[in-house]
UniProtKB/TrEMBL annotation:
This is Aldehyde dehydrogenase family protein. It holds the Pfam family Aldedh. It comes from Bosea caraganae. Residues 19-476 form the Aldehyde dehydrogenase domain. Keywords: Oxidation, Oxidoreductase.
Length: 481
């Protein structure tokens, strides 16, 4: 009989009446496990447990919280190989990518263990004589988290770690498609010595468990990562609730990579191929729009195709695989649909875009490169979220920058150039939250702020010390001396 992985509610592993099968996208005959499908009642119990745990947890010392986060970090890092294998098996990114993501989760917990000890306030003189002013940060309360399938351990990690570090209690609903890595992470943190009820996991559907989390009156804040459409629903529900909830939304991207005539061709191709296709292009930071100036355009396209020919698309767990499968049938259908739409609009498919057969039944697709595209086409404006990139020709740097900024998104942007002048100008004038020079738009550091502008993000930044803007609330206290 397959093991059923249960929800964690009030420190107890509790099974719901229903479970769903977590399927390996590299081999759909392989069932990773059965995971409980939570109900609204489970969610309500989890929030009640978090509420009961909050008074004591919010008063723990920084040392107590440090020790739990550090212990969790140690176990994640010690088990990065098996956590990475689980991640690759359920989500489809390659094993080195899976191990890399598990390592990143461990490093995030180590960073926020340190942040427990670094939280500080300010004492400043009042404008009135004999009065002192103190500015301190307090935990927000109960944080609801809704996470997507594409970074199944890092995203839960970079939400849970700061929440706990700053004294909050948590109820997390991971993506229904890929709950295994979040389950393993929660298990590790709980065993690191967390008091019962501080961290609760309720797996299940967004429309059921997620919606109930958004509507629960005892939840103070929601941190969400996922699509723009769902993000908007999250925002509306949080503003409609009484009291209103604090929100942090990380959503889509249509990230440009500008390649200038003076770029080092080898660096530009490697940067583009990595940013566009690694992790099967399933990154909100993926370089899906390649904006290339005229003098290098044809050489760039030719070299990119040559590089793509060498990419091995296969089972995520096989050694030598560069690109794993797409996460599921519906994402695969979406990728193929966008390739067809682009061709209908006049784009030329110069490499890939077809389904691939491998030893095992899986969602394999050859990464696709489209040329002769304009920034007005749907392929340039809508997030595909797969191994699909299009090349847009630009006359010069000024036109390339204008195209890069002409999007409703603003998560990441990159430029490949050997010109300090253009690199500096791009860093200052790109309308994105994260800007890269001669580096892929995807694959960021874990200790600095992550987030975007325009339609990509809403609310305070995630990660690094800036995470405290969301996970703490500021208090100003006045004292007559
Ligand atoms: N920017 C980013 O980092 C990401 C962007 N995306 C984009 O989103 C698209 C779809 O991916 P998907 O994961 O389905 O994204 P969704 O936005 O649909 O899902 C993200 C999370 O929100 C939950 N959710 C869905 N509906 C609701 C609701 N009504 N109330 C509360 N929670 C809800 C989902 O639950 P459930 O598990 O039931 O689906 C999941 O946990 C991708 O193709 C891509 O374009 C996806 C992942 C990450
Ligand atoms: O590019 C990265 O390192 C992170 C990407 C990410 O968070 C996402 O795709 O959701």
């Amino acid at each position: 009989m397959t093991e059923i992985f249960k929800n964690l509610i009030g420190g107890e592993w509790a099974g719901g009446a229903k479970a769903s099968r977590n399927i390996n996208p590299s081999n759909t005959n392989d069932v990773v496990g059965e995971y409980t499908q939570g109900s609204v009642e489970d969610l309500n119990n989890a929030v009640a447990a978090a509420k009961a745990a909050f008074p004591a947890w919010s008063r723990t010392t920084p040392q107590e919280r440090y020790e739990i986060l550090k212990k969790a970090s140690d176990e994640i890092l010690a088990r990065k190989e098996d956590l990475g294998r689980l991640l690759s098996r359920e989500e489809g990114k390659t094993l080195p990518e899976g191990i890399g993501e598990a390592t990143r989760a461990g490093q995030i917990f180590a960073f926020f263990a340190g942040e427990c000890l670094r939280l500080a306030g300010e004492a400043i003189p009042s404008v009135r004589p004999g009065v002192g002013v103190e500015i301190t940060r307090e935990p927000v309360g109960i944080i609801g988290m809704i996470t997507p399938w594409n970074f199944p351990i890092a995203i839960p990690g970079w939400k849970i770690a700061p929440a706990l570090a700053y004294g909050n209690c948590v109820v997390i609903k991971p993506a229904d498609l890929v709950p295994g890595s979040a389950w393993a992470l929660v298990d590790i943190i709980q065993r690191a010595g967390l008091p019962k009820g501080v961290l609760n996991l309720v797996m299940g559907r967004g429309s059921v468990v997620g919606q109930a989390l958004l509507e629960h009156k005892d939840v103070h804040a929601i941190s969400f990562t996922g699509s723009v459409g769902t993000g908007r629903k999250v925002a509306e529900a949080c503003i409609a609730s009484n009291p209103m909830k604090k929100i942090q939304l990380e959503m889509g991207g249509k990230n440009p990579l500008v390649v200038l005539d003076d770029a080092d061709l080898k660096i530009a191709v490697e940067t583009a191929v990595n940013g566009a296709f690694f992790s099967t292009g399933q990154r909100c930071t993926a370089s899906s729009r390649l904006i290339v100036t005229e003098g290098i355009h044809d050489r760039f396209v030719e070299a990119a195709i040559e590089r793509m020919k060498g990419l091995v698309v296969d089972d995520a767990l096989k050694s030598g695989t560069h690109i794993g499968p797409v996460v599921d049938q519906s994402q695969l259908d979406q990728n193929l649909k966008y390739v067809a739409i682009a061709k209908d609009e006049g784009a030329k498919l110069v490499w890939g875009g077809e389904l691939l057969n491998r030893e095992t039944p899986g969602f394999y697709m050859q990464p696709a490169l489209l040329t002769e595209t304009t920034n007005a086409m749907r392929i340039s404006r809508e997030e595909v979220f797969g191994p699909v990139a299009n090349v847009i020709r630009a006359k010069n740097y000024d036109e390339a920058l204008a195209i890069a900024n002409d999007t409703e998104f603003g998560l990441a942007a990159g430029i490949c150039t050997t010109s300090l002048k253009h690199a500096t100008h791009f860093k200052r004038n790109s309308e994105a939250g994260m800007v890269m020079v001669n580096l892929p738009t995807a694959g960021v550091d874990y200790h600095v702020p992550f987030g975007g502008r325009k339609g990509s993000s809403y609310g305070p930044r995630e990660q690094g010390a800036y995470a405290k803007e969301f996970y703490t609330t500021v208090k100003t206290a006045y004292t007559l001396a």
